[in-house]
Design a protein that fits this description.
This protein is an alpha/beta fold. It is 32% helix and 21% strand. It folds into two domains: 157 residues, NAD(P)-binding Rossmann-like Domain (Rossmann fold); 156 residues, 2-Layer Sandwich (Dihydrodipicolinate Reductase, domain 2).
């Protein structure tokens, strides 16, 4: 069965990747793509894809959405906060790539997203779309909140250890580094080539918007998370360190990851932490994970492409589950 889909916010990095995947998806017909700055221009001219579609305005897209099976929101959080309720009220299934509906605790939005939430009922309806952890909730759900890129890499590297009871939940410290595309298509000076080339720096320590999302996903009260900016285009490397429960071995850690993710279609488990490399996941939908232990601690490293497994391909994976398509169709 062919399903119809639309993308609102198709000119951002994640929106372009979504367009690329959906144009080639065997079970989906792309009905419209929006970009207020590219209105009237052809997809083919901006992306090189073979498609007769042209970009329309967000307003036109909202009208066209009523005839679609599913609409992706690849917009800033404030925009998806406005549009998601309208789409759901019209009966349209939604996959939201913004952060507007990820946090169940409404009190955290002003601190981490700089707005008061205006659709609390819809927050309760949003299913958090991390298939490896919440697949059965995603199947057939009408509204998916797609995870953040850092949150995906961080949570997948730690969740099996917590679920198996192998680590102290209060001891988790995560450092992650992302390519500059993770900041979106910003033209500000701090993301210019001259500022990021040959440099490496931390930003938003202890207050990044993905901190409460990771805590919520893992079910922990508090963790320490520090993001870093890498002078590369794309990719995330996440390093999680936690204190092991007494007597836990490398074999038990390996068994926990194998039990959790051994059959996962888009997770690859590697022999140890030092085997994980960003170069191996760029432009792929994979998450790579490797963990190493000593007598007291585990270091669990993961790598994803922030624009794919951290955004667009995970959104399509969620759509496939939502619509009853093969989970990796189009990926």
């Amino acid at each position: 069965m062919q399903h119809s889909a639309g993308i609102i916010g198709a000119s951002g990095y994640s929106g372009i990747e979504l367009t690329r995947i959906l144009v080639g998806h065997p079970g989906v017909s792309l009905s419209f793509v929006t970009s207020d700055r590219w209105v009237g221009q052809a997809i083919s001219a901006k992306t090189g894809l073979t498609s007769a579609l042209t970009y329309v305005s967000n307003e036109q897209g909202l009208a066209a959405a009523k005839g679609c099976d599913v609409v992706f929101l690849a917009t800033p959080a404030e925009t998806s906060l406005e549009l998601a309720p309208k789409l759901r009220a019209a009966g349209v299934k939604v996959v939201d790539l913004a952060g507007s509906f990820r946090l169940q605790d409404l009190s955290k939005y002003p601190a981490f997203y700089k707005f008061e939430h205006t659709s609390p009922a819809l927050v309760k309806d949003a299913v958090y779309g991390m298939p490896e952890l919440f697949r059965e909730k995603i199947r057939g759900a009408p509204f998916i909140s797609n995870p953040g890129c850092y949150a995906t890499a961080a949570a997948l590297s730690v969740a099996p250890l917590l679920r198996a009871g192998l680590i102290d939940p209060e001891s988790i410290v995560i450092s992650a580094a992302s390519g500059v595309s993770g900041a979106g298509r910003k033209a500000s000076e701090e993301y210019s080539f001259m500022e990021i080339d040959s440099d490496f720096r931390a930003y938003k320590p202890l207050k990044h918007q993905h901190v409460p999302e990771i805590e919520q996903t893992l079910g922990v009260r508090k963790l320490v998370f520090t993001p870093h900016l890498l002078p590369i285009k794309r990719g995330i490397l996440s390093t999680a360190v936690a204190r092991l429960k007494a007597g836990v071995t490398q074999g038990q850690v390996n068994e926990a990851f194998a039990a959790a993710f051994g059959a996962e279609p888009l997770v690859k488990l590697l022999p140890g932490a030092e085997s994980v490399r960003i170069a191996d996941v760029v432009k792929t939908p994979w998450c790579l994970i490797g963990a190493s232990v000593d007598e007291t601690h585990v270091v669990s490293v993961s790598a994803i492409d922030n624009l794919l497994k951290g955004a667009a391909s995970q959104a399509v994976q969620n759509m496939n589950l939502m619509l009853g398509q093969p989970e990796v169709a189009g990926l």
